[in-house]
């Protein structure tokens, strides 16, 4: 075989190898359509996502708006009485817990409730139901004065009904009533005044901590828990609470009058059960709210005018907003009827 005969066959098959490249122009021509389809699909999905996102935004905004309106309604209605008056009835005002500013038994809330109860023509009488250990003499005095004013203005009877306890500042309010009813096991009395606090002087010395208190006025630091209580300051404080005690005694005597059977223990700060309280004239009769409404007022339907604690206050207390309140009061040494 001639070697030259092998050369042509090697070059001949080259042409068919290039043939598959022919469809390339068709592929290039089709790519704009595929790109448009891809862009259209992307745009459609994007718009669908945006619409879904807008719907969720609208949903959440409406949810927050509804929630806000509900909270607003609760806050607006929280301090109104729970049932609308309907004809002749017994008006109820609850005195619950500590009597102090910013509590359920503050003078502000109790006076507002009492005014609503007295002003309602359907209210045949007003009943104050007590479950309170007492509290601020100032707050109790304000409520006592207002009860006497409203009684004279509207010519309506006021009855005090004691459930668990009506002690100290709570009893200060109760004596403004025309009659006092109690359960035989109720706690009644504690006609006294106290001012409590803490002293850390010995602890400071043991810890080697020096108290640096600078005042303008020699008595400005009275009651400071880190400074020893001088005899002068002790005497002054004792005289002040003795004066408040005398005020308390005078209010009780005026409220109870000849019904009060006084002895050496009456104003000593002692308390009695309801049965004994009736015997010594701190209460008039044994009986509960339903009995008073049915048998004494003769209006069995009871309408509650007590302002209710709102949601914000309840949550604040639950999460500890008032945890330090007792400590602050102790530091300040605020007089208390309890």
Helices and strands in order, then pairings?
Elements: H1 7-11, H2 14-18, H3 24-77, E1 89-96, H4 107-119, E2 123-132, H5 137-154, E3 157-167, H6 169-174, E4 179-182, E5 187-189, H7 201-207, H8 231-256, E6 271-273, H9 274-279, E7 285-286, H10 289-297, E8 302-304, H11 311-318, H12 325-332
Parallel strand pairs: 1-2, 1-8, 2-3, 3-4, 3-5, 4-7
Antiparallel strand pairs: 5-6
Helix pairs in contact: 4-5
Structure description:
It is a single chain. The chain starts with 6 loop residues before the first helix and ends in a 6-residue tail after the last helix. Helix 4 runs parallel beside helix 5 (137-154). With 338 residues, it is α/β, with parallel strands linked by helices. Strands 1, 2, 3, 4, 5, 6, 7 and 8 form an 8-stranded mixed sheet that branches. 49% of the residues lie in helices and 13% in strands.
Largest sheet: 8 strands, mixed
Residue fraction in strands: 5-15%
Sum up the overall morphology in one term: flat
Compressed to H and E, one letter per element, the order equals HHHEHEHEHEEHHEHEHEHH
Total of DSSP H or I helical runs spanning 4+ residues: 12
Mean model confidence by pLDDT: 81
How much helix, percentage-wise, in residues? 40-55%
Low-confidence region ranges = 1-20, 22-30, 78-83, 318-332
Judged by helices, strands and strand pairing, the structural class is: alpha/beta
* Strands, count: 8
Distance between the termini: 133 Å
Radius of gyration: 40 Å
Main features:
single chain; 338 residues; alpha/beta; 13% strand; disordered N terminus
């Amino acid at each position: 075989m001639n070697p030259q005969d092998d050369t042509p066959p090697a070059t001949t098959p080259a042409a068919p190898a290039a043939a598959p490249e022919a469809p390339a122009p068709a592929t290039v021509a089709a790519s704009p359509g595929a790109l448009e389809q891809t862009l259209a699909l992307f745009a459609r999905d994007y718009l669908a996502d945006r619409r879904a996102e807008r719907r969720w935004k609208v949903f959440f905004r409406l949810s927050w708006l509804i929630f806000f309106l509900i909270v607003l309604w609760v806050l607006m209605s929280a301090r109104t009485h729970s049932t609308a008056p309907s004809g002749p009835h017994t008006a109820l005002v609850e005195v619950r817990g500590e009597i102090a500013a910013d509590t359920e038994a503050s003078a502000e809330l109790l006076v507002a409730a009492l005014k609503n109860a007295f002003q309602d023509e359907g209210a045949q009488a007003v009943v104050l139901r007590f479950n309170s250990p007492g509290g601020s003499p100032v707050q109790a005095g304000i409520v006592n004065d207002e009860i006497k004013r409203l009684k004279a203005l509207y010519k309506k009877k006021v009855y005090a009904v004691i459930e668990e306890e009506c002690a100290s500042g709570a009893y200060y309010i109760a004596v403004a009533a025309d009659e006092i009813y109690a359960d035989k096991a109720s706690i009644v009395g504690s006609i006294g005044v106290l001012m409590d606090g803490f002293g850390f002087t010995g602890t400071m010395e043991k810890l080697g901590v020096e108290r640096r208190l600078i005042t303008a006025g020699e008595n400005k630091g009275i009651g400071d828990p880190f400074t020893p209580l001088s005899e002068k300051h002790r005497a002054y404080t004792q005289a002040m609470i003795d004066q408040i005690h005398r005020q308390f005694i005078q209010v009780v005597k005026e409220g109870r009058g000849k019904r009060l059977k006084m002895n050496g223990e009456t104003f000593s700060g002692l308390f009695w059960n309801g049965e004994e309280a009736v015997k010594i004239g701190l209460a008039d009769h044994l009986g509960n709210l339903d009995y008073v409404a049915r048998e004494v007022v003769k209006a069995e339907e009871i309408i509650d005018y007590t302002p209710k604690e709102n949601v914000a206050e309840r949550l604040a207390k639950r999460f500890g907003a008032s945890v330090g309140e007792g400590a602050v009061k102790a530091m300040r040494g605020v007089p208390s009827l309890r």
